[in-house]
């Protein structure tokens, strides 16, 4: 029988040590380090996410209780809580950001192989949104939000090829969503979908001039003039399909023309109004694109409920950044497993079951494809035992 290391060790094998050490040198992350390496810190923080450890004591205690299996993880001894706490507070979180984007490249390659697109158009479909991470104002006094509350905001772009987070940035809670969105550079031909929190007409015009398409909701208070009314297919649920010009952009030229689409939604028993700068796609397709935006909401839900991102094991800004970036790395690991698996996993179920199997010595890919199948029985030892014969020597 082929022997394998623990599932956690097999996951860590996706982060080559030479590549990891190069990133450590690039960020000078081990400057003034005394014995406790960045690899040990990374193993501990990834265990915090996948093992759902609630505190530094649980992280260190959980690793210490693995019955001598730490060598398979590339570390010789379990870290102390004070050592891990100091490393989280002082070592640069940018190291974990670089590890996130390296893992993203691996996941993108797998997503391209799978090719699970829902739409026929060739545009790269992205969702843009932000989510608040609430903090205690007394413990996290650097994260000012309101007088009695602290908060951070995680801005995220979700690639719908594999539903992978392809861009992330963490800001203070008071940062407006559209302020950070303006800093993102999308490739021409990309189709971005976002909600009404990004209603900035000048930014919409910048996207159009840059060759970027978008789909969003139009506010009820928006003032516009109708340039053209298009025919609506019977029985499609589309009530109106109009080309409009916003009142504030009448002098911006033909690039300011937008498309207003009103669709009746049976599930909500109401009509919804969408706006886009894409003038060719079918009106029903535009409505389906906006419905697909719900995937980024599901991503935030899985991130907050399944991983360690609501409570933190450190109170400094650097420690919080490290923990959030490690959560994003863990989410990429889960997405990669889900992409390659032949089993129909839900993300929440995968998170829960993998947590129980981290230190089980079993082939990861066999388990991920058949999680409820018993492992094969070990092969019998084919070596025959030699009989012990004691010869009787005659007395001298």
Q: Biggest sheet: strands side by side, in what order?
A: 3-2-1-4-5-9-8-7-6
Rg: 27 Å
For the sheet with most strands, the description reads:
9 strands, mixed
Number of contiguous helices: 13
Number of strands: 9
β content, as a range? 15-25%
Fraction of helical residues: 25-40%
Provide the low-confidence segments as ranges: none
User: Shape, please?
Assistant: globular
Oligomer: single chain
Plain-language structure description:
The structure is a single chain. By secondary structure, the chain is α+β, with helices and mostly antiparallel strands. Helices cover 37% and strands 17% of the residues. The chain has helices at residues 7-12, 17-27, 38-50, 56-64, 81-90, 94-114, 177-181, 201-209, 283-292, 294-306, 317-340, 347-357, 364-369, and strands at residues 125-135, 150-159, 164-172, 191-193, 213-217, 224-229, 238-246, 258-265, 270-276. A nine-stranded mixed β-sheet has the order 3-2-1-4-5-9-8-7-6, sandwiched between helices. The protein is globular and about 95 Å long.
Structure summarized in a few sentences:
This protein has 396 residues and is of the alpha+beta class. 37% of the residues lie in helices and 17% in strands.
Topology:
Elements: H1 7-12, H2 17-27, H3 38-50, H4 56-64, H5 81-90, H6 94-114, E1 125-135, E2 150-159, E3 164-172, H7 177-181, E4 191-193, H8 201-209, E5 213-217, E6 224-229, E7 238-246, E8 258-265, E9 270-276, H9 283-292, H10 294-306, H11 317-340, H12 347-357, H13 364-369
Parallel strand pairs: 1-4, 4-5
Antiparallel strand pairs: 1-2, 2-3, 5-9, 6-7, 7-8, 8-9
Helix pairs in contact: 2-6, 3-4, 3-11, 5-11, 6-11
